[in-house]
Structure formats: structure tokens, C-alpha cells
Amino acid sequence: MAEEHKHEESIMDKIAEKIHGHDNSSSSDSDDEKKASSIKTKIFRLFGREKPVHKVFGGGKPADIFLWRNKKVSGGVLGAATLSWILFELLQYNLLTLFGHVSILALAVLFLWSSATTFIHKTPPHIPEVHIPEEVVLQLASGLRIEINRGFTILRNIALGRDLKKFLMVVAGLWVLSKVGSSCNFLTLIYIATVLLFTVPVFYEKYEDKVDHFGEKAMKEIKKQYAVLDEKVLSKVMSKIPRGAFNKKKD
């Protein structure tokens, strides 16, 4: 009996060791998964983006339009922008003239159609009520307000001399904008911006891993070149700028 009892105890000890070893392996697997997830969260994203592209555009219907979630609406908006650019830029059509002619034609057709139905005893045309949804307008206004305030903050910091790197980037961007503006008018510039807004984000969302990888390499190279420029040129220029008067005013 004693030998059988010892044999049963040894079997129970082996089972306990197996269970304990399985728990350790599962805990190690969970630790590995946590490490892998932490590595994934550290992937470089362009412009320091932490949210999905859909969330960057505010989510909701505006983001669906820009990212072609609703292809009919997105195509309709882009088509209307293209038609407007052709009419006003290529055909040199005047906006007020076009609006007046289209309105006259539409009202005349609807008026004659509605009047004719009373004589021929048919149902009048169904004219839907058109209204702009409040939610869409509020989302667009909120996103625009946030971006404008962010731009004002960046410009204020640059004007106070707090960030030389951003100052050079803004100056370069404004110089490029002035060159583009001298080669095309405002309407063409707005149309180009609209086309880019409807094409670049959707392609970036589709190939974001490749673009982010290329952007990471480009940012490293830019930082390397900027460090060389800062060491050889900018630091010397900044050291020659007198700051005594500014410090006295600050005190």
C-alpha cells in the first residue's frame, strides 16, 4: 500500500510540473506578444501621425468623401470641381453669368412643366427639399478651426524666434507658393489643391507603409543635412546676433 501511495504521489507531482511549465510558457508567450505589440506601436509615421488617416480628416462624412468611401459623392464633387475649372478657366465663363443662365433655364423648365401638368391632369414634378446637414458643416468648421489655430500658433512661435528650423521651412514654403502663384491664377491653384486633396490621401492610405518607410529615410537624411548646416552656418550666424538688448527688456 505504501508503494502504491508513493507511486500516486509521483504521478501527481509530474502532472503539477507539466501544468506549471505550461503556465510559464503561456506567460512567456503573452510577454512576447506584448513586446511585439510595443514594437509595432513604435513604427514611424509621416508627420508624427498617431491616428488613422480617416481620423486625421475628422472622421464622419467629410473623411468618407476625401478618402473615397462613398465613390459616387466623391466622384461627383471632383467632377463638379473639374467642370467649374473648365468653364471659368478654359472657356473664360463668368460666374454670375453662368449662375444667372442656369437658374433661368432651370426655373423656366420647372415652371412650364408644373403648369402643364394642371392642364393635362398629371402629377406635378417632384422637387425635393434641399438642405445642408448641420452635422457635416459643424465637422468641417471644427476641423478647419483646429488647423487654423495650429497654424497661428506655429507662426507666433516662429515670429518670436523660438524655432529657426520651422522659420526656414515656412520661408521656403512661402517662396514656393509665390512661384506657383506667379505661374497660375487663384482659381487654378484652388483646383490643383482640390485634386491633390482627393487623390494624395487615398493613395497614402493605400500605400502608407511604403510611404512611411520612404519618409523615415528622407527625414533622417534631412536631419543629417540640417545638422551639418546648423553646425557650419546657422550656429555662426546666430552667435553674431546681439541679444543683450532683448535680455535687458525681458528682465
TrEMBL record:
Key word Protein biosynthesis present: no
Stored PROSITE patterns: RETICULON
Domain Reticulon, residue spans: 62-251
Keywords: Endoplasmic reticulum, Membrane, Transmembrane, Transmembrane helix
InterPro entries, sorted: Reticulon, Reticulon-like
Subcellular location as annotated: Endoplasmic reticulum membrane
TM regions (residue ranges): 98-120, 186-204
Record carries keyword Ligase: no
Topology within the bilayer: Multi-pass membrane protein
Protein name, as recorded: Reticulon-like protein
